[in-house]
């Protein structure tokens, strides 16, 4: 019998043995990490913020230690190539890397040039470059972007272009660091299933670091969890959920939380899985988890900041912000187009509002118009009681080397106290954690806009949960509740449906510059598919959006 | 909003020229600006660079550069007048100042500072024309044979301006959103933060370049050939003429300016001729023979 010409790839896509690493002048970031990814495997990398996920991905593409320096021990092999002996350039044909911030991943002025660059660097002839660019653009549904300048693209479009540039060399392994953090739910879901399709059809191995596990767990073959630089779990998605239930509740998905509260096993890895279990009524009863939040010995952030239910609160009818027939026109490249098209809305003081919509729907522009950063082409946008806006990148607010220098005097100290940072007055802002930097930026936006202890009428946050793990989102939720409790209307532009469900009482859904839905959060977040929580998609019950709400219906037996 | 310094693809000889030719031409103007102190020659270089920018459809970049250059130039003039205690024509006696001692403002120190300031404006204009008209993608590729081992160098040269322009826009917005009781975002603070942030971001861009294989072996010779343009000879010729005339002028003493002890501005025929030639080369990006 003739020997088959086709030889399946046998070298692991990634083989790491005993890897320990420290950045220059820093303590150990990775500790004795060993793992092997088989060719064609789709692996999810989970873990809290700063647990070493990004460093592991950097090591797998050669940036660590070749670009970042530091001390490294152990071995890394990518598709058979030694990643410590070879630099990222040599590994470029074997591994593609997509980082969290797409803006730092584009080095060319046009989309076509950006995607073509790795092939050009490799010396591929022009004809094969053109074909590869066309094919990868088709695969990622971006052929219409090829002629565009990169500085005219939205965050979601940029992320796809960065992925295309990583895939164009047809690498055996693709590493992605929170690629959906800047994408709306539609684009995020599309990206995950696109990765799954590329994984199945092209045989590409995927190693994907994500915080929003509910978005990608169902697509994964395997989950690796990290904690303090070491691998703490390595197994199947279903085993991961059982492990997370015991080891770290912050890593549980809403669906798993729903089932564990109801005492149903096995825990579901996604919406379809959960619905199948419920439809068949096969869930084995297990001991239900506590239905209330675990008791905390330490006082909550809102307690520490002095937000009390008894604080004076303006009447709910007091207007925090109002837009009347608001039209805003912005330029995109050389063209001008309407970003907001006749928006009418009113936000009251004390209200907690989530503003949602796909990338480019006009959320940020609406907040900027209310803050007076862009002029309306027609209509009015106003915040009568003043407004503090925290834009997408809190680091832009931090321009000095000492927290106290950012916020001088008694006013500064009082606003630092408000956000719980009074003890960090002598710290360098760059030494603060991500959550602390965000609170400091908010304090800077608030400083001098408060009358006595009274907050400005409107506090707005633009995409504040980028790169946050669930524990930090919980802190942010408490901060928002505290601000609203003290009488500010709080508007949060977010793509994070689960986070919106956790804090918002009202959701405004924007689509292409117009308000397409505006109502109670429970109604809006349970009445659709993309802009609905995982629990809402599983149970499909009006007004049921959180595991705690869902378990009531499961306990009553109406769905089993 | 797009920065006026950001490169925009347009159909013009300067944009079509290879990066080497464009850099040679604009670089020649800069060499003259640094070689000469004659206000006439410096003004001629400024006019030439501005004219080149306008003819290359980068008038907004030229205007922004003049504004930014003046912001830099005015403090230079003031500081020079305060710290330089030379010159015979005392205009103001400001008495004893801490650290400075006796401060006399002289016409010569003002004139000397004005020359430094004018040079700063001229450099800004030339750099703005480069940034707005020379495709950074082609610069990146052109740099590869000489900076292939240093993606950071390439990123700094080709991407620092666009990255800094985007960052500056965001930082200015954040500055407007600071509460009235927060420390104000002064121009010096903004520039310091911008420089630090831009270098950080250039490092990120350099990491991406490494991942794209920038440091891999030989560049594609076909791509280099594609980078040449029929307009190249025009800019090499203009730049070469400027350089030869500038060196010759320096040899025969066309740079007749001295600030101290009293101001002397020589307007010899050679200075006038050099200035006229420099201004004429500003027409090189014109489309008449395109």
Write a structural description.
The complex is a heterodimer of chains A (560) and B (290). Chain A is α/β, with parallel strands linked by helices and 560 residues long. Chain A has three domains: 230 residues, 3-Layer(aba) Sandwich (Rossmann fold), CATH 3.40.50.300; 40 residues, no CATH class; 239 residues, 3-Layer(aba) Sandwich (Rossmann fold). In chain A, 34% of the residues lie in helices and 23% in strands. Chain A is built from 21 helices and 21 strands. In chain A, the strands form five sheets. Chain A has a six-stranded mixed β-sheet with strand order 6-7-8-3-9-10, with helices on both faces. Chain A has a six-stranded mixed β-sheet with strand order 17-18-19-15-20-21, with helices on both faces. In chain A, a hairpin with a 5-residue loop joins strand 1 and strand 2. The radius of gyration of chain A is 24 Å and the shape is globular. Chain A starts with 13 loop residues before the first strand and ends in a 5-residue tail after the last helix. With 290 residues, chain B is mainly alpha-helical. Chain B has a domain of 173 residues. In chain B, the strands form two sheets. Chain B has a two-stranded antiparallel ribbon with strand order 1-2. Chain B has a two-stranded antiparallel ribbon with strand order 3-4. In chain B, helix 2 runs antiparallel to helix 5. The longest helix of chain B has 27 residues. The two termini of chain B are 31 Å apart. The relative contact order of chain B is 0.20. The chains are: A alpha/beta (560), B mainly alpha (290). The interface between A and B is large, with 66 and 55 residues.
List the helices and strands and how they pair.
The complex is a heterodimer of chains A (560) and B (290).
Chain A: E1 14-22, E2 28-37, E3 42-46, H1 53-61, H2 63-66, E4 71-78, E5 81-82, H3 88-91, E6 95-98, H4 111-122, H5 126-139, H6 155-167, E7 173-177, H7 185-202, E8 205-209, H8 213-216, E9 222-227, E10 230-235, H9 237-247, H10 254-262, E11 264-265, H11 271-280, E12 284-285, H12 301-304, E13 319-332, E14 335-348, E15 352-356, H13 363-370, E16 378-382, E17 387-390, H14 403-406, H15 409-418, H16 434-446, E18 458-462, H17 470-485, E19 489-493, H18 497-503, E20 506-511, E21 514-520, H19 521-524, H20 534-539, H21 547-555
Parallel strand pairs in A: 3-8, 3-9, 6-7, 7-8, 15-19, 15-20, 17-18, 18-19
Antiparallel strand pairs in A: 1-2, 1-4, 4-5, 9-10, 11-12, 13-14, 13-16, 20-21
Helix pairs in contact in A: 4-5, 4-6, 10-21, 15-16
Chain B: H1 13-16, H2 19-35, H3 39-55, H4 59-83, E1 90-97, E2 101-106, H5 107-133, H6 136-147, H7 151-177, H8 187-211, H9 221-226, H10 232-251, E3 257-258, E4 264-265, H11 269-281
Antiparallel strand pairs in B: 1-2, 3-4
Helix pairs in contact in B: 2-3, 2-5, 2-10, 3-4, 3-5, 3-11, 4-5, 6-7, 7-8, 10-11
